[in-house]
């Protein structure tokens, strides 16, 4: 496989409190590995993965894994603006991490304007439910996701459950945003890059109905 061939590059940022498992999710998705103990992210780590969203359309995914600790926030904030997608991650056995999701969402929205960031909310470590450790119920997580205008997925890096689905859901959501104009290629913005903007044209759906204004956060 020629890793130099791709049509689009999407920059995706991992968001959430420290210890919710953002790095473990990326390790499972990009390398299919799970480590019981993983070094805490300091500042920002980078991962790269490739996904073919449809025949002939290959996406290079550049993931920014941000540290959840407050002392690194000034560093991680500098990466928000050049992101087109965000995985908002909380631990289903940690209510504080769930309560902080809206803060992460708001902070990104404040820093990325006038660009658009699309989100997926992930309830991570759902394997802990069997041990009776779950404190955030699916219904309240789905309610929050609806308020944020984001799909909701429950996953576990430990078992591998829904890890691939979470990342690919976000990737395909961004790609559909390109098709329908919700996300646009912009000069000087690295959230989305095209390797051949003159030769690879997006196949936007045709519609005779004018698009209505949206109150979605243009983040």
TrEMBL record:
Keyword Transferase among UniProt keywords: no
SMART domains reported for this sequence: ARF (SM00177), RAB (SM00175), RAN (SM00176), RAS (SM00173), RHO (SM00174)
Record InterPro entries: P-loop_NTPase (IPR027417), Rab_GTPases_membrane_traffic (IPR050209), Small_GTP-bd (IPR005225), Small_GTPase (IPR001806)
UniProt KW keywords: GTP-binding, Nucleotide-binding
Matches recorded under PROSITE patterns: RAB, RAS, RHO
Span list, region Disordered: 192-219
Highest taxon, organism lineage: Eukaryota
UniProt xrefs under SUPFAM superfamilies: P-loop containing nucleoside triphosphate hydrolases
GO MF annotation list: GTP binding; GTPase activity
Extent of Polar residues compositional bias: 195-209
Statement: the UniProt record of this protein carries the keyword Nucleotide-binding: yes
Pfam assignment, any one: Ras
PANTHER family: DRAB11-RELATED
Family: Belongs to the small GTPase superfamily. Rab family.
Protein name: Uncharacterized protein
Gene for this chain: rab42b
